[in-house]
Amino acid sequence: MEESDKVLGRLCELLPETDGFECHRFKVGSYNALVASEFQLAYEADVMAVVVLNTPSFLETTFKHWLQSQKGEHEALNELIAKFGANPLQAYFIRKFGQVIKDLRPVEARVIHDFDFNNNCTPKVLLTTCGMVSGAAYFYRPLESGKSRIDPVTHVEKRSMGLSLHPKFGGHFGFRAVFIFPRVHLPADFKEKTAPMRLDTPEKQKEALDLFNNSWKDGRFRDCGDPLERYSELQLKYFSTPPMARWQLIAHWFDEKRTRTNA
After folding, report:
1. Are 48 and 186 spatial neighbours (Cβ–Cβ below 8 Å)?
2. Which alpha helices (DSSP H) does the chain contain, by range?
């Protein structure tokens, strides 16, 4: 078995699908060939990288159980909120992926999160491109590339954005990070997977892109491509709500924990 296969297998054990994760590998060179120099990864072309995403089951199982475990028996919810602020999800991924890197040793691994930015506020990696290159999701480019639009909420001129759709989950998923293995090289004959194009007509693509760019808060774009599994109503509300207000939506999680403890 190739070393790259062993490393990928170990990563998938640490981030299993049963916990709401998917891992998709690609060559750094395949990604670098598609992005501007400022977004390129400074590694050899055949180095293995793996993009990690969350499936719909993640939030209300893995994340919920972790967040419940962070609240002390006599700790008030307000104290937990003060501890994590607006980003308990971010705190989870920092800890989880940090532990994964330790558990992968002696294999060297580096991680770039979806919330990691350069000093000029540009992302350190384009995860949608990683997703497309690896075959994790199909990326639909704006039909009129470079055309600006007026944001319906802020009324500010913005560039139209492309949309990634997962072959099974449609828009009901989230890219979380890319792991890079500087000393793990993929063989010369390695070919990345290609995600299927579920939106097979210009009309379907235009509808999805319009929903994503102009009505993203209502989440309708997520249903494009006939997904087999979707976010719950709670998750749809969670991801469309300002971060600090999200705590109100999940406060009942901690009532559930107290009920189980007292049972």
Report:
1. yes
2. 3-14, 28-32, 64-69, 77-84, 88-104, 127-134, 202-214, 233-239, 246-250, 252-262
Taking the C-alpha atoms of residue 65 and residue 240, their distance in angstroms, rounded to an integer, is 22
Sorted by sequence, the CB contacts under 8 Å of residue 258 that are 6+ apart come out as none
* Residue pLDDT, tens place only, 18-32: 999 999 999 999 999
Q: Mapping DSSP to helix (H, G, I), strand (E, B) and coil, where does residue 51 land?
A: strand
CB hemisphere CA count around 111 (13 angstroms) = 19
CA distance 137 to 198: 10
Q: CB neighbours (10 Å) of residue 151? A: 13
In this predicted structure, which of 1-10, 51-60, 252-261 has the lowest mean pLDDT? 252-261
- Estimate to the nearest angstrom the gap between the alpha carbon of 203 and the chain centroid: 27
Name which of 51, 205, 183, 20 is nearest 104 in CA terms. 183
Arithmetic mean of pLDDT over the chain: 93
| CB-based contact 243:86 (threshold 8 Å) | yes
pLDDT at 263 over 70: no
Q: Would you say residue 224 has pLDDT above 90?
A: yes
Contacts 24+ apart (CB under 8 A), 238-244: 238/59, 243/86, 243/87, 244/85, 244/86
- The alpha carbon of residue 117 and the mean position of all alpha carbons in its chain are separated, in whole angstroms, by 15
Written as six digits, the tokens of 185 are 């090289």
Q: For residues 154 and 38, which has the higher predicted lDDT (pLDDT)? A: 38
